[in-house]
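About this split. The held-out portion is used to measure sequence recovery: a designer receives only the structure tokens and must propose an amino acid at every position. Recovery is the fraction of positions where the proposal matches the reference. Here is one held-out target exactly as it appears in the evaluation file.
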């Protein structure tokens, strides 16, 4: 059967990185039918950008696989409380922590909170990101450029720096990059540049930590239906979002989260420095 094109109703949010409650339809994040098998039993995971979208879907599946979860988010308190509810419904605790991941002190405090509760971090997920479309590089201000880099790549450096002293052999780090790192995006120059930096960071960090027995990998999603989309694009682009990939639809957060389960579990024990590509069928190099 041919893949059917799927569209979202036109919609837009004025605040970034967006809120989940107003989205229509709601993203799918709990992956009905997915049965946990203890792949992450008793692991401690800290997820940035965990209040909604891909981060929430990761948190839910990690809990289903037996992990204790902490999420760091900017200011979307209602969304974060819902993530905590969903994680607790899976029988696991969920620590919610707010703050700007682009500030090193925020990252340090988030790690300290998790260590205070659980004593260690086994899995670090660097997922928080933002984007600001512009039609020309001439429209990208210095303030926007710094903001995008601070959230998307500085935050990953800060989180790793803070968490690493508390990560033992067998721990792992998974970074969220993007299909734009491989195929580019003319309206997301600064965003795609940060995502390319994340690929290089992942590969370099994997080599730097190999002797410590800590694996580092990444996931490069394609167009995924998250709050970032209606808070970033206008109504017309939201309506057609995801229609330009071979599968002709946007993906759902819970179609991406299993990649993060795989990379955090022993199933991927011989993988480091690699990138997985849940992107609706777009073929990319690397």
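Reference sequence for scoring:
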């Amino acid at each position: 059967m041919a893949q059917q094109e799927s569209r979202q109703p036109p919609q837009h949010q004025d605040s970034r990185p967006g809120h989940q409650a107003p989205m229509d339809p709601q993203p799918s994040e709990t992956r009905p039918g997915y049965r946990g098998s203890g792949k992450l039993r008793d692991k401690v995971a800290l997820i940035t950008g965990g209040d909604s979208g891909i981060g929430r879907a990761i948190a839910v599946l990690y809990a289903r696989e037996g992990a204790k979860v902490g999420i760091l988010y900017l200011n979307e308190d209602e969304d974060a409380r819902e993530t905590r509810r969903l994680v607790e419904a899976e029988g696991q605790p969920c620590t919610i922590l707010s703050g700007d991941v682009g500030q090193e002190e925020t990252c340090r405090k988030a790690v300290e909170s998790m260590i205070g509760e659980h004593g260690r971090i086994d899995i670090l997920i660097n997922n928080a990101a933002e984007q600001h479309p512009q039609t020309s590089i001439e429209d990208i201000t210095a303030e926007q450029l710094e903001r995008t880099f601070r959230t998307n790549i500085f935050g990953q450096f800060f989180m790793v720096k803070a968490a690493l002293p508390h990560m033992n052999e067998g721990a792992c780090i998974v970074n969220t990059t993007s299909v734009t790192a491989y195929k580019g995006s003319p309206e997301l120059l600064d965003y795609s540049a940060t995502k390319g930096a994340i690929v290089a960071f992942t590969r370099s960090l994997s080599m730097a930590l190999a002797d410590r027995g800590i694996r580092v990998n990444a996931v490069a999603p394609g167009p995924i239906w998250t709050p970032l989309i209606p808070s970033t694009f206008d109504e017309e682009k939201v309506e057609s979002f995801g229609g330009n990939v071979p599968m002709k639809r946007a993906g759902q957060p819970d179609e991406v989260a299993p990649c993060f389960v795989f990379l955090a579990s022993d199933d991927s024990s011989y993988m480091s420095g690699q990138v997985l590509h849940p992107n609706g069928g777009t073929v990319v190099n690397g």
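Annotator remark: The longest strand covers residues 68-73.
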